[in-house]
Amino acid sequence: MTGSRRYDMSRLVLDVVEALAHWRRQKCLLVGHDWGGMVAWHLAAAHPEVGGARPGWSDVD
Length: 61
Prior knowledge:
Blueprint lengths: L8 H14 L5 E3 L4 H12 L4 E3 L8
Parallel strand pairs: 1-2
Protein name: AB hydrolase-1 domain-containing protein
Organism: Prototheca wickerhamii
Pfam families: Abhydrolase_1
């Protein structure tokens, strides 16, 4: 994939899931700001088994 398509939200969430698997972690508390906050929200919604999200510093449109 090239260009802005690489920044699809589902891809960013999958990046976090893959990073957790790489580090052999099943759960996390993801704190995000700005775009990271949006990723944290989407991760919590799509993968509740991973843990919680505290993206309190993000603007939500």
